[in-house]
Amino acid sequence: MKLSLILLGAALWATPPAQVPSKFSGHKGKDIVYQGLTEDFVPFNYQEDGDVKGSATEVAKEAFKRAKLKVSFAVWPWARAYKAALEKPKHFVYSTSRTQEREKLFKWVGPIVKDEVHLACLEGADFTPHPDFTTFKSHTVAGQYGDAPIEFLQKHGFKITIYREEDERMQAFKKGRIPLDIVTTGSQKSYETKWNVKYKKLAYLYSTDYWLAFHPSTPDAVIEALNSALESMRKDGTLKNITAKY
Question: What's the superkingdom here (predicted)?
Answer without folding.
Answer: Bacteria
